[in-house]
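Closing statement on the 2'-deoxy-thymidine-beta-L-rhamnose sub-project.
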Amino acid sequence: MHNDQRSTTLAIFCKVVDNFGDIGICWRLARQFHREHGIAVTLWVDDLASFRRIWPGVSVEAGEQVVDGVRVLRWRDQDGVYAPADVADIVIEFFGVDIPPGYVAAMAQCEPRPVWINYEGLSAEEWVEGCHALPSMHPRLKLTKHFFFPGFTDKTGGLLRERDLLGARDRFQADAAARADFLARLGVGKDEMAALTVSLFCYPHAPVAALFAAWQAGDRPVTCLVPQGVAHEQVAAFVGAGAVATHGNLTVRTIPFLSQDDYDRLLWACDVNFVRGEDSWVRAQWAGRPFIWHIYPQDENLHHVKLRAFLQKYAENLDSLIDFSLRWNGVEGDAPADWPALWTSLQASLPTIRSRDAEWQARMSANGDLVRNLLDFARSLR
Ligand SMILES: Cc1cn([C@H]2C[C@H](O)[C@@H](COP(=O)(O)OP(=O)(O)O[C@H]3O[C@@H](C)[C@H](O)[C@@H](O)[C@H]3O)O2)c(=O)[nH]c1=O
């Protein structure tokens, strides 16, 4: 971005609205910009406690700290006066957060102006292509911000994918001892590993108890690994006071909430993954294992439209996956959900879903990785 020798600077402004997806995505962006492109990244984040859950190296006390080469600033208020020298070359506001007004004023004084990106949420809906990269003028200042949409086609920003992600996944999945060591570190016993292993990450309203009942009475042993706090009530009802319980053909084990890197390994290690929101959903797509997505709920069931848009792209003709996913997300059918039948049918389709997954990854990879796409876009604006 520069004629001089200093490295490009980039700022990400992240407000944690709820859960872990906001900081989860911002942290991935920050790390990849720095590690793969040598960019000096400053991450402004208002909730260090949530950050620490997904990255234990973070201090919840520090106003300013450096984590894995990224400067992390606690974003406490919106006030303050900034100079043009404080402003990064590329400024990313995550999900339309309001950047401190003083910082925006300083952006308007920079020459040249910084590239200002509004990073939006991931959706498979058609309209995304039309909105990706659109400019929006500031009403008063001489500044333009651009929308940047992740997505599933080459007319969007693509998906987040680190350079060595698929290589690291392949090495892990080819190494049975690495899988066994990893699961053993989480307390998983040898018999549990030999069963169909499932990871579970979903919102509290998912029909977990009904699915547990189907697995319990099913014809094949299932081990379900649940990070601490997920589906808390339904898991506690099955497991009781301890960390693990077996009833019938189902073992449910609570495991610690993992760092982002270990969470990837969990997805690689399991035969089927239940994921949610945005970031774990994308990681599951790169894990090369069948997954079920629990979408973040929106008013007036708007999320059902998004869910169907994705299934239409990803699960074409995979009826068992479509049926299971719709019911998992509370989309009503003509009769109450028959979980044993839904599961039996999904289980029978797992090999087909796995090969669909491989095709999907090839298509998604061809769209380029999101961080590289964002940098190319930013450079085209300077
Ligand atoms: C279960 C688990 C997750 N994670 C990480 C993976 C992800 O980065 C993050 C979870 O983020 P998500 O999957 O997106 O689910 P999420 O539900 O936590 O996050 C979000 O979804 C977005 C769509 C909304 O905009 C957000 O407001 C938020 O609700 O937590 C771990 O690091 N360790 C774990 O053990």
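The pocket of 2'-deoxy-thymidine-beta-L-rhamnose is lined by residues 17-22, 24, 54, 201, 227, 257-260, 263, 276-281, 296 (CB under 6 Å). With this model delivered, the sub-project is considered complete and its resources will be redirected to Aim 3.
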